[in-house]
């Protein structure tokens, strides 16, 4: 394999795996604190990536996107199991559990920004070698985490934002809304492939998610003294 491809995979895949693992563990840990130990009982509160890897979503798709120099690198892990009936206050706690994953991603993004500014300061600009590798990982970590956080807040199942909407709706309507999650693969295909081809105005990722990610990243990096 070409050495440049290996390098590109390393600076994208490593940050992505960390981001999605922490995202899922955050869901499980908040659920446990709110009364549902399902994820803990199934060994899914571990930060060991093997426990969370989805072969396609965690490895194959990100590799394809990295090698093809796609504009956005993203993926997913196996969802942490949550039994909402075991939560102390199911409707309220469903929302808190859902927000835990994106919230974790935003915290990780800020941590990445701090690592980046520290690397640049200590290395005199990270012009090459190990310092450049760390800086690229940190920068990608910022963007990947913000993207995952915002993307998962889209208000439709199976995303976390869908669970937030479900928790806010009246119970009967929320149950009907949840059924959209049965078509999760179709939702992904529509958002990522079909709608952008039908009309640029329907490109949710390009017109809504990506601009918001860029704005948050610029603001977050600006806080730590990095202008982009």
Query: What is the N-to-C succession of helices and strands?
Result: HHHHHHHHH
Q: Give the overall form.
A: globular
Helical content, roughly?
A: 55-70%
- Termini separation comes to 32 Å
Class from secondary-structure proportions: mainly alpha
Radius of gyration: 18 Å
- In terms of per-residue confidence, which ranges show pLDDT below 50 for 5 or more consecutive residues? none
Rounded average pLDDT: 87
Total beta strands: 0
Largest sheet, in brief, is:
none
The overall number of domains is 1
Number of helices: 9
Strand content: under 5%
Give me the secondary-structure topology.
Blueprint: H1 3-33, H2 38-41, H3 55-67, H4 90-123, H5 129-151, H6 160-168, H7 171-178, H8 184-198, H9 204-223
Helix pairs in contact: 1-3, 1-4, 1-5, 4-5, 4-6, 5-9, 6-7
Structural summary, described in words:
By secondary structure, the chain is mainly alpha-helical. It has one domain. The chain is built from nine helices and no strands. The chain has helices at 3-33, 38-41, 55-67, 90-123, 129-151, 160-168, 171-178, 184-198, 204-223. Helix 4 runs antiparallel to helix 5 (129-151) and helix 6 (160-168) packs antiparallel against helix 7. The longest helix is centred in the middle third of the chain and has 34 residues, at 90-123. It is globular.
